[in-house]
């Protein structure tokens, strides 16, 4: 199967190395999400696949967030379309959740910035390995007057607990690899030069194990965390609700002007 935004390299021991290549910034476009869904469909019937690695062809960015300019135009047209934005959020959530529920291990190899949607995709993976000094990771949507809308509020809370997730989301914190490793947001920080080598070694160790048992354990672990479906539905509706507050217009305009957004009401 061929893909428009993904390069697939099938390595030894059943490792499927997926390189995201959606120039110029690996943004979460419809084409990329469609390719992700086609990839999951292919992997679901591929008994030779034992571990999936998500990597990036962009030297500075793992995956960028959604199309911000599209959000501006979408936000201005939200009146009378109460379900449109929530549906878009739900599409991203469902796409990423397929990696979270794939019955084999999934590893994110993070070579650069993983902010907003990039962080949400990374958190949908079972493991995260990140290069030091090459980028930051975090959920930065609130700085734009938005909230994470692709599963971020649910996954970060499950990974780090309510208190730390609230702090990181409210302050839109951007963490380097060492900071992210210290709090458990990533599993391992490594040098840029050894990222691919260490990710491959990590994936090989997984692939040599009982990956079918891991898949069943993954299903049980997901069930132990409570109903993510309900949480994702609430997140999608809340994400849509931000467009009715007027704050995204302020935050996104400031972002494109390279200024800090000021959400205080004008006197």
Please give a structural write-up.
The protein has eleven helices and eight strands. The protein is α/β, with parallel strands linked by helices and 267 residues long. Helix 2 packs antiparallel against helix 11 (247-256) and helix 3 runs antiparallel to helix 10 (228-242). The longest helix is centred in the middle third of the chain and has 18 residues, at 84-101. The protein is globular and about 65 Å long. The termini are far apart. The model has no long low-confidence stretch (mean pLDDT 89).
Largest sheet properties: 6 strands, mixed
Give the overall shape, derived from the CA principal axes: globular
How much beta, percentage-wise?
5-15%
Structural class: alpha/beta
Order of helices and strands: EEHEHHEEHEEHHHEHHHH
Kindly report the spatial arrangement of strands forming the biggest sheet. Answer: 1-2-3-4-6-8
* N→C terminal distance: 58 Å
In terms of quaternary structure, the protein is single chain
Radius of gyration: 18 Å
Count up the helices: 11
**Low-pLDDT residue intervals, each spanning 5 or more residues:** none
The portion of residues assigned to helices is 40-55%
Overall pLDDT metric? 89
The total of beta strands comes to 8
């Amino acid at each position: 199967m061929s893909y428009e935004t993904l390069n697939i390299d099938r390595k030894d021991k059943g490792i499927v190395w997926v390189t995201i290549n959606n120039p110029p910034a690996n943004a979460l476009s419809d084409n990329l999400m469609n390719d992700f869904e086609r990839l999951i469909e292919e992997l679901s019937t591929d008994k030779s696949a034992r571990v999936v690695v998500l990597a990036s062809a962009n030297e500075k960015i793992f995956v960028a967030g959604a199309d911000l300019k599209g959000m501006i135009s979408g936000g201005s047209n939200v009146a009378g379309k109460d379900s449109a934005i929530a549906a878009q959020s739900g599409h991203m959530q469902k796409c990423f959740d397929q990696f979270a529920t794939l019955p084999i291990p999934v590893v994110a190899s993070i070579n650069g910035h993983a902010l907003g949607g990039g962080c949400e995709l990374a958190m949908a993976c079972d493991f995260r390995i990140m290069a030091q000094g090459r980028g930051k990771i975090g959920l930065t949507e609130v700085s734009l007057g938005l909230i994470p809308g692709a599963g971020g509020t649910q996954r970060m809370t499950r990974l780090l607990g309510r208190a730390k997730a609230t702090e990181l989301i409210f302050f839109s914190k951007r963490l380097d690899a060492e900071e992210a490793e210290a709090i458990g947001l990533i599993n391992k920080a490594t040098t840029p030069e050894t990222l691919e080598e260490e990710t491959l070694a990590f994936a090989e160790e997984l692939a040599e194990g009982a990956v079918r048992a891991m898949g069943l354990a993954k299903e049980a672990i997901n069930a132990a965390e409570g109903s993510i479906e309900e949480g994702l539905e609430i997140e999608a509706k809340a994400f849509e609700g931000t467009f009715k507050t007027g704050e995204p217009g302020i935050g996104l305009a400031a972002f494109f002007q390279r200024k800090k957004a000021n959400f205080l009401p004008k006197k």
